[in-house]
Specification:
196 residues, mainly alpha, 83% helix, globular
């Protein structure tokens, strides 16, 4: 069985494996770049609370786009909704939480911790944040609009990390945002089914 066939047959497991693989990749790259990720994580409840509060502006942006009725956003939302439906069609309990946590941890360790951290040692913080956000946007670019949206989110997370100096804050923000949005898309799908 080919890798492509396995991914098509089990997209959720492939997504979980991919997100999980980002964690050791970030740890390896951090070691190569001589970046101590452990020193960038301050385990405390204030950081968790700040990370949870920091989700609000992201949700406001998403809500503003959703309520705008803007055609390109509606088309993108339909595309993402279909992807989420496909991904979680036969999901096991806790799958949304697991993939949200893995994405928050893996992507933030890699993009903010390693990439932005490495770039900040060489360039200005503003340039490091911008380049890391653009790479984050490119990694999520299922369309031009999604690239722009993901880049804006990447800028926000980059600034948040720069201001707090704590990866835990952006990990919580990212993971909680993903968890909420995936549930919103799944709920909107279920509501559509009931109305049909």
């Amino acid at each position: 069985m080919s890798l492509r066939h396995s991914v098509a047959r089990h997209p959720l497991l492939a997504g979980i494996a991919f997100q999980a693989a980002l964690i050791p990749l970030a740890l390896i790259l951090a070691r190569v770049a001589d970046i101590s990720l452990g020193e960038q994580i301050d385990w405390n409840l204030d950081a968790v609370a700040l990370g949870a509060l920091a989700v609000l502006p992201m949700l406001v942006l998403l809500g503003a786009l959703a309520s705008s009725g803007w055609g390109p956003y509606r088309a993108l939302a339909d595309q993402v909704r279909d992807f989420v439906r496909q991904l979680f069609r036969h999901a096991f309990p806790g799958a949304v939480l697991l993939i949200s946590l893995l994405a928050g941890i893996g992507e933030e360790l890699l993009v903010r911790g390693v990439l932005q951290g490495w770039l900040t040692e060489r360039w200005s913080p503003e340039s490091a944040i911008l380049v890391a956000a653009l790479i984050f946007g490119l990694a999520h670019s299922i369309s031009r609009l999604y690239f722009v949206f993901a880049t804006v989110i990447g800028l926000y997370l980059g600034v948040l990390y720069y201001l707090t100096g704590n990866l835990l804050v952006v990990i919580v923000t990212h993971a909680l945002y993903d968890w909420i949005v995936i549930h919103l898309y799944l709920r909107s799908r279920d509501a559509g089914r009931r109305g049909a």
